[in-house]
Amino acid sequence: MKKKYRIIVIILMIVSLAFVINRYTYTFGSLEKAEILIESVESPDQRQSARVYWKPVGGVTGHSEIFVEVTFLKTEQTKVIYHSIGEDLVELKWINNEILDIKNQSAGEDTNKSIRLNIFKEIYDENGAACRSIVLNLKSYYQTCYKN
Asked: Is-contact 6 42, C-beta < 8 A?
């Protein structure tokens, strides 16, 4: 009986640890399998560029996720600043050298996930996983994280 109890406790500990690791070490994942939706749009000073990627999620709804990645051209470093379910209309527009306007809205419904982000200080993650991430927070990846 003690042996079964120990096995159950060990299994519960492993599952709990996996949950904690998954929940608090989120990093947006890799964009290797994502496709480019919008080619690079350069900032007014041409020091940064932004690009939109999409990944089909599939399933019954057939929706896709979109990611906005900023590249700092001098260093070639990249940073994902936006993650959401993709809608019908997706556009990027630089307001100035630091502020990127991201439009992500539905043509028919009242779904609007558009936002203006300071690329140096802010990120948006629709489900909030990036906002909980200890890894992104330790890297000083953002100062403000928005979620739906």
From this structure: no
pTM given for the model = 0.82
Q: Which helix (H) or strand (E) holds 15?
A: helix 2-24
Residue range 113-128, pLDDT digits in tens: 999 999 999 999 998 8
Place of tokens 């590249």: 71
Q: What are phi and psi of 70, to 5 degrees?
A: -105, 135
Give the span between the Cα atoms of 27 and 106, in whole angstroms: 27
DSSP secondary structure letter of residue 130: H
| Greater pLDDT, 100 or 87 | 100
Task: Quote the CA–CA distance of 106 and 138 in Å, as a whole number.
Answer: 35
Select from 110, 90, 111 the least CA-distant residue to 102.
90
Q: Which of 46, 17, 47, 37 is nearest to 82 (CA)?
A: 37
d(C-alpha 42, C-alpha 58), whole Å: 31
Cβ atoms 132, 125 nearer than 8 A: no
Count of Cβ atoms closer than 10 Å to residue 9 Cβ:
10
